[in-house]
Every structure is written in C-alpha cells, then in structure tokens.
Design goal:
Oligomer: heterodimer
Structural class of chain B: alpha+beta
Strand content of chain A: under 5%
Strand order of the largest sheet of chain B: 8-1-9
Helix content of chain A: over 70%
Distance between the termini of chain B: 23 Å
Number of helices of chain B: 10
Helix content of chain B: 25-40%
Radius of gyration of chain A: 21 Å
Largest sheet of chain A: none
Shape of chain A: globular
Distance between the termini of chain A: 19 Å
Number of strands of chain B: 9
C-alpha cells in the first residue's frame, strides 16, 4: 500500500465552533435525558398505548443503525467482493458505524421502561425466547457494537503507540499485533451480525401483520430491510466522504466515491424490482394510486429510490461530486422514509390513537446525533482514521472499473 | 480471485434466496414444528365465554376486577360520560363498552380483556418470556423478566397489553384471568359477580360446546359465529353477540396464529440456527482465500499495515 493512502490523523484544532455547537446540543440532550429518567416516559414523550414505539425506535434505532451500515457495506465490498482499492474507506466507515450503533444502543436504554433489567437480556440465556425476533435484534446489536469498536481499535492503538506516555505506548505496541491477527475472525462476525439484525428489524413488524397497512405488509420485509440498509450504508459513506473533503480540508476522493455509486446501483435496482414485484403479486399496485396518505407516501418513497438510481446512472454523473452527494442524500432520505413508513405510518392501532414526537423526544434525538458528529470530528483529527490523499492515480485507475 | 468473488456472490445470493423463499413458503412448515399448540390441543385450557346478548352493562365486573387485582379505578371522565375510561388502560384490565347505531337501531355491550390466545403474539414477541402461557394456558406476566420494551403492545392484534406510562418503574398491565384466585380454587372475579351470567368461566372445550348449543337453540338471537373459535389461531376467551363482531372492536384477524408468519420466515432462513454458522464459516473462508490470493494490499483486514 502506498504511503499516500495510509491513514493519518487530520490534525488541526480539536475545539472548533462546529465541535462546540455539537457538544452544546449533546449537553442539552443529557439534561433532557435526566428529566426523562426523573419524570418517566409518559410525562416526557408523546408515546402511548396505541403507538408504543415512537421516534427513538423509528429513527435512532431502526434508521440510525441503517445509516450506520457504512462499515457493513464497505466491508462487504473490500473483504468479500475483494475490492481492495476501497480499503482507505474502511476506517472512517467503521468509525461512523461504531458511533451510530452506540447511539442506537443508548437510545434503546432511554426508551425501555425498565432499563435496569437490560443486563438480563444477554446473561439470562435460560430465559431466552427462541421465537422473539426482538431478542435476536437486541443480541445482534449488542454484539455488533462491540465488534465495531474492536474493528476500530487498531486506529486508537496506533494513536496510543505514537503517544508520549511510555506505558501507554508500550501497551499499544504489544496489543496491536494480537488485535490484528484476530481481526479476520472478528470482521467475519461483523459481516454476519448486520446481515441478521438488519433483516430482522424488518421481521419485527411481521408480528404486527394484522394491523399493518397492506402497502407495506409483506413477508419480504426482512429482505427489503437488508437490501435498503446496504444502499443506505453506501450512501452514508459517500456523504461522509464528501463532507470530510469539504470541511476537513481533505482532497476529494471523487473517483473512489464514484466507484461506490456504481456498486450501489445493482443493490438499489434489486430493491426496487423486489418492492414493485411484491406489490404486484399481492395486488397492491392500485393502492399506490388510491390518492390517500398511504398511497402518496409509497409513491414518494419509491420515487426517491428511482431518483437516486437516475442520478447515479452514468459514469459522467457519478464523477460529479455534487451530483454524487445529492444522489446519496436522496437515497438516505428514501431509506429513512421507508423505515418511518413501516414503523409509524403503516402501523395502525385504531381510530382514536395518534402520535407525533414530543419536543423532548426530538431534542434528545438531535442532541445524540450532534454528539455523534462532534465525536467523529474529534476522532479523525486525533487518530489515524482518514487516508492521507486518497485520490492518487492508482485509485483513479482502480475506481474507473 | 474471480473464484472467491463468485463464491462470495453465491453466499450472499443464497442468503437472500433463503429469505425470498421463506416469504413464499406456506406457514404450515412452522406449525409442523409441533412446539406450539393448536386450538384443537387447547381444549383443557382455562377460558371465558361472554354472551353480549345477556350483558346488561352494569359494570359490576369492572368493579370486581379492580378489587381483585388491586387496581385504583380510573376516574378520568371522557366525552362519553357512560364510557369512562374509553378503553383498557394502565388501570383497567377489564372494561364494558357500548356499541350503538342510531340509524338501524342496533345496540350491544361488549366486554374487553385479554383473549388468552391459544398461540399468542405477545408471548412470541417477549424477549425473556415475561409474558408467557403458564398454568391452565393462561397468559401471565412476570415483571422480573420485563425490560419494558413494549413489543407485546406492537404485536397483540387485540390491543390488550397496556403500559404504566405514568410510573417510573412501569409494568405491563393486562388481564391474567385472575390466576391468583384460580390458584385458591375461586373463579375469575368478573365471572363470579356477573348477575346475568353473561360471562362464565370454564375450560375451552366446555365453553365452545355451550356456545354452539346456544347458537343452535336460538339462532335468531345471534350472529351465527363463535368469535375466538378460530380467530388468530383460536382464543380461550370466546364471544357470542347479536351484532357483527368487527363493530364491537373484535377484528377479523384471520384464522392463522399471529406468530405463524414470522416463524415461517425466521425458521426457513435460520434453519434452527444452522444458517448463521454456515454463513459465518463461508464469510471467513472467502476472506481467508481473498487474503491468500490477493497478496499485498488486497489482503485481509488491517494486516497490511503492521
């Protein structure tokens, strides 16, 4: 590997206005979390017995982990499809994934009514209910969060090895070879776990089948959730790459990002074909044009996926960084909308129930995401995560294929 | 390299294919596991029969339920003064509701509480089995195993489990068929106090026989159907009424047990947890092969940087 694509700390000031704003929002969230802990779920959220799952599940967990599938998508590309030229994207993608999954896990703790019993989920294995899809999701997400931080650990250990503290440096130098040797087996687990729980996030709603709107009520939910999380993962990496080049003074990795755009297309196409074929087989195409909220939202959702595919359709379009960024954002929005539609719109508890998130719910979610962005910036400035100048001729050649 | 790539694609395609075929295969393959009881095997389970045509709406059952279960009665008044509270909630495990249609003059009371499904959605959802079918097939709740995730509320097609939103250590609240009274040899409180015997307690078989006898004896009195005999795979609480059941808030939710569909998908994909192990082996195998074949920088994770 040439020196140009070796990861290195970005450097520069740690405390910037962006970081300050991000952590201020996070601090506000912490205060509100304290209030939620003191006053209970009923007083602080808009959730109710009709809509027992709200913004924290639909966004922080279901959408947030899909946005955190960048690590999964890039690892599939690099380690399974053997596209080594994307290797420089692994570390930043794993970092966003590790942060995204950690936030999701934290949000679950906020959302649970009896969070002090959470330890029983992994440890009380004799009580495990083999039928429970949620148990599988919970165990997989717990396991995968640990896998992601393990996958990130070489970056932190390399940072520690270069530190001025001799003890820390000696420890890091000893640990690094062991970590690296075991990495393949952990990375394979890091591919298995998201395959399982991202599909199972869709399977969760199969149990609500009798109360799910027919436009989304299909036994293919797990497959549609899996395919859409992979395209969302690629989308997240493209957005993050484009933003890093814009705001952290990095050379734009356009060629490599264009390659990702191309890699997304078949998965995106497969998603659209299956979604439409499923609607056709179940006789629900007509419901798309019923001129009600459900038909309209499905059409918007599908149109966004199609628009993203069109924006990525030619080599020329993919090489335009602005266009690529637009496509990725449209895709992230499409995937998020699909998840919101399934978890909040399609789910119909009955006529006298309604839900719109409370200000507290929204501000906590905003604060957690802001904290995630702030932590990302601090990490890439302090540790070897982003590749040096990725857009070398070698990468250009590679990504053109 | 091309071999490993093809193999990798096969692995991924195989997983996706399994998911697709799982979605298409009929739910019968899940039932074939035999682990989950069918309605025909639940005859001896405890249940109730509610005959809406005998109910006079006195709500004595609601008072008795609150007393038997130490519930503080919900005194909030809703717009409809007769019907307060409007529905089951964190302080109401049993409720009498009224249906009236002024245009065609039809009218009926309906009692709502847990249906005690033969194969319930809530127990299938519950991670650690806080909600589980315990003695006499009664669906009971053990707070020590509940993390408060509320997936049971998402799952139940009848909207029965409720959550103590107002509390700091919230529990799930639902009818447990007075299992504490049954253990003492008593009947469920609501069946004990009902002055017209509109709701009676018994085994599912006894109650089904009684319901069909009433249908045959007075066909003009009833909608010709025992609600709960087949609905959602069968429930242990059964209903007779003179008004269509969906108007009383009892949904037409199909005759398959709600968990059948998710079991069909999960069982086909996971094959008794063989699939994850095979997939892990294949993924690790492909990665090893790629590392060996790829040589320098196309190798396994992080290796090249040491």
């Amino acid at each position: 590997m040439n020196s140009a694509s070796r990861p290195a700390p970005v450097g520069g000031p740690i405390v910037t206005p962006t970081v300050v704003v991000a952590f201020a929002l996070a601090a506000l969230a912490v205060a509100l979390i304290a209030w939620r802990a003191a006053a209970g779920l009923g007083a602080t959220t808009a959730m109710n017995d009709g809509y027992p799952w709200g913004l924290w599940i639909a966004f922080d967990v279901v959408t947030g982990t899909a946005l955190g599938c960048g690590g999964f998508a890039i690892a599939l590309l690099v380690y399974i499809l053997n596209q080594g030229r994307y290797h420089p994207m692994i570390r930043p993608a794993f970092l966003t994934s590790a942060l995204g999954y950690s936030i999701a896990g934290f949000s679950v703790l906020l959302d649970l009514g009896r969070p002090w019993l959470t330890y029983k989920i992994p440890f009380f294995f004799w009580n495990w209910n083999g039928d429970s899809v949620l148990l599988e999701v919970a165990l997989c997400i717990m396991g995968y969060s640990m896998v992601l931080w393990y996958e990130m650990s070489p970056a932190f250990l390399e940072g520690a090895a270069a530190s001025s503290s001799p003890g820390l440096s000696r420890f890091a130098k000893k640990a690094l070879p062991i970590v690296k040797k075991s990495m393949l087996w952990v990375t394979a687990l890091g591919l298995l776990l998201p395959t399982m729980h991202q599909s199972s996030l869709g399977a969760l709603l199969l149990l609500s089948g009798p109360r799910l709107h027919p436009l989304w009520n299909t036994p293919l939910l797990p497959l549609l959730f899996l395919l859409s999380c992979i395209v969302m993962g690629f989308g997240a990496v493209v957005v993050e790459g484009a933003l890093s080049s814009r705001f952290l003074g990095r050379q734009a990795e356009t060629a490599m990002l264009a390659g990702l755009g191309k890699a997304m297309l078949p998965v995106l196409g497969l998603y659209l074909v299956i979604r439409l074929a499923d609607l056709a087989v179940r006789g629900q195409i007509g419901a798309l044009f019923a001129f009600d909220l459900y038909g309209a939202m499905s059409v918007v959702e599908l149109s966004l996926f199609v628009a993203a595919a069109l924006l990525l359709s030619t080599d020329e379009r993919r090489r335009d960084l602005g266009n690529l960024m637009r496509a990725a954002l449209v895709l992230l929005f499409a995937g998020a909308l699909y998840r919101f539609d399934v978890f909040l719109l399609a789910f119909q508890p009955g006529p006298h129930w309604s839900y719109f998130p409370s200000v507290t719910e929204i501000l906590i979610t905003v604060g957690l995401v802001a904290g995630e962005i702030g932590t990302y910036i601090v990490c890439v400035r302090a540790f070897p995560i982003l590749a040096g100048h990725a857009a070398t001729t070698r990468d250009l050649r590679g990504a053109a294929h | 390299m091309s071999i490993s790539r093809r193999m990798a694609l096969k692995v991924l395609a195989g997983t996706a294919g399994a998911m697709a075929s799982a979605a298409i295969s009929p739910p019968s393959c899940a039932a074939a596991r035999g682990k989950h009881i069918k309605a025909s095997e639940a005859g001896a389970n405890a249940g109730m029969l509610y005959d809406a045509t005998r109910c006079i709406g006195c709500k004595a059952c609601m008072v008795a339920c609150n007393e038997a279960n130490d519930l503080v009665p919900d005194g909030h008044l809703s717009e409809d003064r007769w019907q307060s509270p409007l529905d089951l909630n964190e302080r109401t495990k049993n409720i009498i509701k009224v249906y009236r249609n002024d245009t065609d003059g039809t009218f009926s009371f309906v009692k709502r509480q847990c249906m005690h499904c033969v194969d319930p959605a809530c127990t299938s959802a519950c991670m650690l089995g806080a909600l589980a079918k315990r003695e006499h097939g009664i669906v009971t709740y053990d707070a020590a195993l509940c993390v408060g995730c509320r997936y049971c509320e998402m799952a139940c097609p009848f909207g029965v489990p409720k959550f103590e939103w107002s509390k700091l250590a919230p529990k799930i609240v639902k009818c447990e068929l007075c299992n504490h009274r049954i253990a003492e040899g008593k009947d469920p409180a609501c069946t004990e106090v009902c002055p017209t015997h509109a709701v009676i307690y018994g085994t599912r078989d006894e109650l089904l026989a009684e319901a069909h006898q009433r249908l045959e004896g007075q066909p003009e009195r009833y909608v010709p159907h025992v609600y709960g005999e087949h609905e959602a795979g069968g429930t242990q609480v059964l209903y007779l009424a003179s008004v269509e059941f969906d108007k009383l808030g009892l949904p037409a939710c199909g005759d398959n047990a709600v968990p059948d569909r998710v079991r069909a998908v999960q069982d086909t994909v996971y094959q008794g947890f063989v699939t994850p192990f095979v997939l892990y082996g294949l993924l690790a195998g492909v990665m090893l092969r790629n590392r060996k074949a790829g040589g320098d920088d196309d190798s396994g994770p992080e290796e090249e940087r040491s």
